Amino acid sequence: MIHFGNVWWITSKVEDVSPEEMIERSKQQKYIDAMEYAQMSFNPFMASEENS
User: Fold this and answer.
1) Cβ atoms within 10 Å of 10's Cβ, excluding its own
2) Percentage above 90 pLDDT, the chain
């Protein structure tokens, strides 16, 4: 349940990555899995907002 309509997502910067490195990492399974986890963990909050 989201109280008062706020969703907080805390991030931290770990490193600077060049555009070329971003492309290369986007093809590596461990980064694909990490992005999928982030998206899946955020989706329930977005769905509950749409249904409010």
Assistant:
1) 4
2) 46
